[in-house]
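$ ./design --mode recover --in tokens.txt
reading tokens...
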């Protein structure tokens, strides 16, 4: 066997992840063993997707798939080893980070997301726990288990994607058609969470998620999102006004005006008006001072 599995480092919904190494080089790697036991007639679709999309993408801000192998009927993905993730960093209050660090992380995340979208791939599960750090501080978009090709306009999709707190309003409404704008919404929520250092829209269930989202950001109306009121669940909603600029300034006390514009661009209710990855990357937020930190100098270990 070319790879060893040494210790378990993580467990997700459909995989167990081990730390290991490559015999020939001694290189540290991670092995993601996909649980296929329940799928006797073949591999789970999510495993196939993850392999397919990772093979198509090579980018400094997307996790590298080094190899794949089968063992005891299980599919194993050999990935570059990434020692920690953004969720751990946000939760560990002994780690201090600055607005310049946040800017560097947003830049790397958006470059990774843009690379996916440019290759016609939707990630569909962006959240701090799926943004991993390399030893030199690069952010890598990881966990492509829910990814899919950007759909043709009339293709019908499941809206049951993305972890609840990071789910865009069109998904909360159960839209059967959606675009790469769902990933940008998730990035916007992650940006807010980095500034607040607590989850921004922590809904307790799917109904509460709408409540929490619209209370914070205003209930969408047909005026800024034509036909939003034709979604089935719309009439049950409480109508909240959008927050004033001053309310946003008070909530995001350390954010500059450009940082707020950047956040609001990603958190637009109407997916057609939401900023694209390119618009985000070209935002004045990245041009104003302070410049993003050099990733290799950010201390993320307490
Ligand atoms: P799932 O689809 O089951 O959520 P993930 O790919 O997100 O699987 O992996 C589950 C967990 O395993 C991650 O949250 C992380 O803690 C750990 N992990 C995943 N990939 C790596 C890696 N390349 N290096 C180190 N740890 C990893
Ligand atoms: Mg995961």
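writing sequence...
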């Amino acid at each position: 066997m070319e790879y060893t599995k040494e210790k378990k480092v993580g467990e997700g919904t459909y995989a167990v992840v081990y730390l290991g190494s490559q015999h020939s080089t001694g290189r540290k790697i991670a092995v993601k063993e996909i649980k296929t036991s329940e799928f006797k007639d073949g591999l789970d679709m999510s495993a196939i997707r993850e392999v397919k999309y990772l093979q198509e993408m090579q980018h400094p801000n997307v996790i590298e798939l080094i190899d794949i192998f089968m063992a005891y009927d299980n599919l194993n993905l050999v990935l570059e080893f990434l020692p920690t993730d953004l969720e751990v960093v946000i939760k560990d209050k002994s780690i201090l980070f600055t607005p310049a660090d946040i800017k560097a992380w947003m830049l790397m995340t958006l470059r990774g997301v843009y690379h996916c979208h440019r290759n016609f791939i939707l990630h569909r599960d962006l959240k701090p726990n799926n943004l991993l750090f390399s030893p030199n501080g690069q952010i890598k978009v990881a966990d492509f288990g829910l990814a899919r090709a950007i759909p043709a306009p009339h293709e019908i999709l499941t809206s049951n994607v993305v972890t609840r707190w990071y789910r865009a309003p069109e998904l909360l409404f159960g839209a059967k058609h959606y675009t790469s704008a769902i990933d940008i919404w998730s990035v916007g929520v992650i940006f807010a969470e980095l500034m607040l250092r607590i989850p921004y829209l922590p809904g307790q269930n799917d109904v509460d998620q709408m409540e929490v989202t619209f209370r914070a950001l205003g209930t969408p109306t047909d005026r800024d999102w034509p036909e939003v009121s034709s979604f089935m669940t719309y009439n049950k909603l409480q109508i909240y006004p959008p927050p004033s600029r001053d309310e946003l300034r008070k909530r995001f006390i350390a954010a500059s005006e450009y940082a707020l514009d950047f956040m609001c661009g990603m958190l637009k209710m109407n997916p057609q008006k939401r900023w694209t990855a390119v618009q985000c990357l070209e935002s004045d937020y990245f041009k104003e001072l302070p410049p993003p930190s050099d990733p290799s100098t950010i201390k993320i270990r307490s």
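exit 0
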